[in-house]
């Protein structure tokens, strides 16, 4: 069987196995919360925020952020058009309306101008997404949000280990959310983290995520109907062990992108994850975007690489193009407005970026990429001359 190159996957060592074993043996009865406390405290310190609250997913952490910040029915929340649907679904959970803003070619993220174009009297919040580990210009976004009285939430699911102007991803805006899904840079299998430096927001999230119980409540006296969004001790133990190896996990992601840069060579027209000035982006997935002039669709390239044993994922389709939002007037408007999102998304793929890969694997993959483009661009040219 020929080798397949996975697009994502974790790095698990004896350290993780030992910690999870420790948790499943001992984190019960009076010690059921010990691993959470250690993981949350270490995570908050690592990111440089006041509070970290472990959740079952990033989706639930974003839901809690919106609920805690009081976003609800009648409100509009501006989101980037190109992101995973998990950035946006929680907007619907709280009864608000997502508004899809264009991304910037310089960062593949939101930009103050694209957000400003979407602000109305109903806008309450902006969810900025650190796409594939790159980051938007948070100084500009924060200034815009301050000027209009909008909450700013950072979806840092893909940017563990990135920094901008000396601050860690996850420390921007009013609150942020991380994902520890099995595909992410740091994993707990499934899991997430809500982070904030605002004491009141953290206190509100602790109530909302535990069925409306005040912290420390032992009389099971629910103050309101809320949510149940908790992580297990085994997951927290896995996360703690991964966090102890954070630098190694981050270094690996940088090394993979460097290997792709080397393998594609200095004269390639293929663009990899763009990074803004003052930003040090940890690439969750090294992602390639090729010239429009090559006339190759992402579906064609995905299939050609799949046939060569190389797993890829499509650059996020614009959310406004998906069946899930077919009924949304905001999506209809976005389809006309968001030229950059539609252009870049149509010619991009995530390359294999799993922790198990190395420079040799990347060199082989780059060979397959060159080979696939050779075939597809050739066919495209023949097709045109025959026409
Ligand atoms: C993975 C991801 C999420 C969702 O994370 P879950 O833990 O699966 O809920 C949210 N936003 C972005 C940008 C992601 O990549």
Please give the order of strands in the largest beta sheet: 1-9-8-5-4-2-3
User: What is the molecular shape?
Assistant: globular
Which residues sit in consecutive blocks of at least 5 with pLDDT less than 50? none
Q: Regarding quaternary structure, how should these chains be classified?
A: single chain
Instruction: Determine the structural class based on helices, strands and strand pairing.
Output: alpha/beta
Largest sheet: 7 strands, mixed
Q: How many β-strand runs?
A: 14
How many helices? The count is 13
H/E series: HHEHEHEHEHEEEEEHHHEEEHEHHEH
Report the bound ligands by name, code or SMILES: pyridoxal-5'-phosphate
> How far apart lie the N and C ends?
40 Å
The proportion of strand residues reads 5-15%
Mean pLDDT: 96
The Cα radius of gyration reads: 21 Å
Helical residues, percent: 25-40%
Give a description of the structure.
The protein is of the alpha/beta class and 387 residues long. Helices cover 40% and strands 14% of the residues. The chain is built from 13 helices and 14 strands. It has helices at residues 14-26, 34-47, 58-68, 89-93, 112-116, 138-148, 199-208, 233-244, 246-264, 298-307, 329-337, 339-345, 359-386, and strands at residues 51-55, 76-80, 97-101, 123-129, 151-155, 163-164, 167-168, 175-179, 192-196, 271-272, 279-280, 287-289, 313-314, 348-350. The strands form three sheets. A seven-stranded mixed β-sheet has the order 1-9-8-5-4-2-3, with helices on both faces. The structure holds pyridoxal-5'-phosphate. Pyridoxal-5'-phosphate is lined by residues 57-59, 83-84, 86-87, 129, 155, 157-158, 179, 181, 192.
């Amino acid at each position: 069987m020929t080798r397949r190159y996975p697009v994502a996957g974790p790095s698990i060592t004896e350290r993780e196995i030992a910690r999870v074993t420790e948790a499943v043996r001992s984190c019960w009865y009076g010690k059921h919360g010990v691993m959470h406390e250690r993981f949350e405290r270490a995570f908050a310190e690592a990111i440089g925020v006041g509070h970290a609250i472990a959740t079952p997913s990033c989706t639930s952490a974003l839901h809690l952020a919106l609920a805690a910040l009081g976003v609800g029915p009648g409100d509009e929340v501006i989101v980037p058009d190109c992101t995973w649907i998990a950035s946006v679904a929680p907007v619907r959970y709280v009864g608000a309306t997502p508004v899809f803003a264009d991304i910037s070619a310089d960062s593949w993220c939101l930009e103050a101008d694209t957000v400003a174009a979407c602000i109305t009297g109903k806008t309450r919040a902006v969810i900025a997404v650190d796409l594939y580990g790159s980051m938007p210009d948070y100084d500009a976004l924060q200034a815009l949000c301050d000027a209009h009285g909008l909450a700013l939430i950072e979806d840092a699911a893909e940017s563990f280990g990135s920094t901008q102007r000396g601050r860690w991803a996850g420390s921007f805006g009013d609150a942020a959310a991380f994902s520890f899904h099995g595909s992410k840079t740091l994993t707990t299998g499934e899991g997430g983290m809500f982070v904030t430096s605002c004491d009141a927001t953290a206190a509100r999230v602790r109530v909302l995520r535990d069925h409306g119980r005040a912290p420390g409540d032992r009389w099971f006296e629910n103050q309101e109907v809320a949510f149940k969004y908790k992580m297990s001790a085994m997951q927290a133990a896995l996360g703690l062990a991964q966090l102890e190896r954070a630098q190694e996990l981050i270094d690996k992601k940088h090394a993979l992108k460097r290997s792709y840069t080397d393998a594609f060579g200095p004269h390639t027209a293929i663009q990899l994850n763009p990074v803004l000035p003052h930003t040090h982006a940890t690439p969750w997935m090294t992602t390639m975007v090729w010239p429009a002039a090559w006339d190759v669709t992402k579906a064609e390239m995905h299939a050609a690489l799949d046939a060569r044993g190389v797993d890829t994922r499509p650059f996020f389709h614009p959310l406004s193009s998906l069946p899930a939002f077919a009924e949304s007037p905001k999506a209809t408007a976005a389809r006309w407005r968001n030229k950059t999102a539609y252009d870049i998304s149509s010619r991009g793929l995530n390359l294999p970026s799993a922790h198990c890969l190395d420079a040799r694997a990347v060199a082989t993959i780059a060979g397959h990429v060159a080979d696939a483009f050779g075939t597809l661009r050739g066919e495209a040219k023949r097709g045109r001359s025959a026409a």
